[in-house]
TrEMBL record:
This is RNA polymerase sigma factor. Pfam families: Glyco_hydro_cc, Sigma70_r2. Residues 275-296 have a biased composition (Low complexity). Residues 400-620 form the Asl1-like glycosyl hydrolase catalytic domain.
Length: 625
């Protein structure tokens, strides 16, 4: 195992950094940089923004380290923050590309000098089949690049499978399935790489590649892999390929770019930047605040954090160019604002905030016509994106076509509904009557997450008192699942509201609540106003409870005494598009689910009229992340 592996930074160093030891904080950040750089560099496929995302990641590490509850969980926490920053970058890039459609969008062009596969080959001196594996990673589907960045590090001994699962928000079993599929893609790409490099080459391969521009892509991987599979000449080339896992075993982290190590604490030469710096005794460093800006550390250089806090953004050259400056001068070039609305849930202090008016939801109306036809599933567009589902003709195919990463049915089962490839089902214990041994066993088997008590504050829904919910809660905790709070219909952040009294009682009794579950329905059909109200509501809830949030029902519906009023399909679609883009910018918003999948005369916020026909709102949902 490399010295940058699981042993660094150790718990004592993290504890000292949390307590304000400036030297320890410098060393924690320095020890973290190689891992962050490798995750980001491979996930972004060597894009020119790699240095910015590394910077944003370590900004959050430095800022929120004092709020880390378990120093022993530092590595898992670091990996999860890194993946979230990668996803946020992907969201921003997608928004920019949509805005600039038809223009020459230079921000989408990878920097040739920073191609991560090429750097891996050159800097680690890879040979033969290891080189082919690195080259094959260029051909992966974009959604698999993030997974690859973590799996690669798992195979080289830098992180564990549980850390991979935590970072992706999946169970280890689901991660194993996704990794298996990704490895199959890499294996087919290895055959393509070998066929393209063969000398003399296949006489028929030239005709297949006549229209190819030479840029690796998932589309051309599939086309060329089909030729390799059916061609006797090319097929023989792949008979000596070794298993990928054996080739990656023992490989170190990719060294940091030259020049980056010069400002690391205790770094003697650029080569030292490739490994995490050995930390000094945590008690030996100065306490926070004892080294004024501009002062020097024990090694004669300016404090890393001081460098960071006093260097303006934009003055640091690209990491890809190999001339990046100090570690946290890169990471902390942004002036930190204490009221940053994008701050993670674990860092925000409780504060009062205005509450958006949220109206109660309607109960789902299951259909008696289950679909027995298994869908052909398109790729899941995001593991965060979900939908509430009740059965109707074509429900399974509609769910697959929605590209949702997860779904739920207000129960512990999904009868008549097939789970699409790449998606997950999340069970729910809907009300007090569902707290039975059989239901709890099914919930445990469906894990790792469990939604609980649907709108207990509404007579027509779970209709439970706070005390009743608290009395039943230990049975839910016994499942071992990660538990969401009861999903109130409204008033989530209200002092002495249903949720506030439940959370206070749970804390007093020592009950575990892992995340907050919310519903929100907007009565104002103006897109900008509705999105602002939703964000305000989520922000107020997160500031009050400081826990991750799942938004499991939301749409624009105006509830009145005479029924429900809906906006036009175009208004609903515009809100969905703007709202999901906003949700992608909230680090504490871990998952969301639209209400709901079926579209009928009654449920006009729905996404599909049958298995194939998406509404205007459904098409907007398909494009959302």
């Amino acid at each position: 195992m490399s010295s940058a592996g699981r042993a660094l930074p150790d718990v004592g160093l993290v504890v000292a950094a949390r307590q304000g030891d400036q030297r320890a904080l410098d060393d924690v950040v320095a020890a973290s940089l190689p891992l962050v750089y490798n995750i980001v560099g491979r996930a972004l496929r060597g894009h020119a923004d790699v240095d910015d995302v590394v910077q944003e990641t370590l900004v959050r590490v430095i800022r929120y380290l004092p709020a880390l509850n378990d120093p022993a969980a530092y590595r898992s926490w670091l990996v999860a923050i890194t993946i979230r920053q990668v996803r946020d970058w992907e969201t921003r890039r997608r928004v920019a590309l949509n805005r600039d459609a038809g223009l020459d969008a230079i921000h989408n062009v990878p920097d040739p000098a920073s191609d991560f596969a090429g750097m891996t080959i050159l800097r680690l001196g890879l040979t033969d089949q290891r080189r082919e594996v690195a080259e094959a990673t260029r051909w992966l589907d974009p959604d698999d690049q993030e997974l690859l960045s973590l799996w690669w590090l798992e195979e080289t001994g830098e992180i564990t499978r549980n850390e991979v699962a935590d970072a992706l928000g999946l169970s280890p079993g689901h991660v194993a399935v996704r990794i298996h599929r990704m490895k199959e893609q890499i294996q087919s790409a290895r055959g393509v790489v070998r066929a393209l490099r063969a000398r003399p080459g296949c006489p028929d391969l030239g005709a297949v590649t006549a229209e190819w521009d030479g840029t690796p892509s998932s589309l051309w991987r599939k086309r060329l892999a089909r030729h390799v599979r059916d061609c006797a000449f090319c097929g023989r080339l792949g008979t000596t390929l070794l298993p990928i896992d054996r080739l990656l075993a023992g490989m170190p982290l990719l060294p940091l770019p030259a020049g980056l190590g010069a400002h690391l604490p205790n770094a003697a030469a650029p080569a030292a930047a490739a490994q995490a710096v050995a930390p000094p005794n945590p008690t030996a460093g100065p306490a926070a605040g004892t080294t004024p800006p501009g002062a020097t550390d024990a090694g004669g250089g300016q404090s890393v954090v001081d460098l960071a806090m006093n260097r303006p953004r934009g003055l640091v050259p690209s990491l890809a160019a190999g001339v990046a400056a100090a570690v946290v001068a890169i990471t902390m070039a942004v002036v930190i604002q204490p009221d940053d609305p994008s701050a993670p849930s674990w860092a925000a202090p409780p504060s009062a905030a205005p509450t958006a008016v949220a109206t109660p939801s309607v109960a789902p109306s299951p259909s008696a016509r289950p679909s027995s036809r298994a869908p052909v599933a398109p790729a899941v567009s995001s593991t965060r994106k979900g939908v509430g589902v009740w059965n109707f003709a074509g429900a399974s195919q509609a769910l697959a076509n929605s590209r949702a990463g997860w779904y739920y049915t207000w129960g512990t089962q999904h009868p008549g509904i097939s789970t699409p490839r790449g998606a997950t089902f999340v069970p729910m214990i809907r009300s007090a009557e569902n707290v039975t041994a059989d239901e709890l066993a099914r919930a445990r088997a469906a894990g790792p997450y469990l939604l609980t008590f649907n709108e207990p504050d509404m007579p027509e829904q779970a209709n439970m008192t706070v005390e009743q919910a608290l009395d039943l809660w230990p049975q839910l905790m016994a499942t071992g699942s990660k538990l969401g709070s009861p999903a109130v219909a409204w008033g989530g952040p209200d002092p002495q509201g249903w949720l506030d009294r439940f959370m206070t009682g749970a804390q007093a009794r020592g009950h575990r609540v892992d995340f907050i579950t919310l519903h929100w329905f907007g009565a104002d059909f103006t897109t900008a106003t509705a999105v602002a109200q939703l964000r305000q509501y989520l922000q107020a809830v997160y500031q009050r409870y400081r826990k991750p949030i799942w938004l499991t029902e939301f749409a624009l519906i105006r509830f009145t005494g005479g029924g429900s009023q809906f906006p036009s399909q175009q208004q609903q679609a515009a809100f969905l598009t703007a709202a999901t883009a906003m949700l992608g910018q909230l680090p504490y918003l871990h998952r969301y689910a639209w209400f709901g999948l079926p579209a009928t005369d009654k449920d006009r916020s729905g996404l599909f009229r049958d298995g194939k026909e998406a509404t205007v709102v459904g098409r907007a949902f398909q494009a959302a992340r």
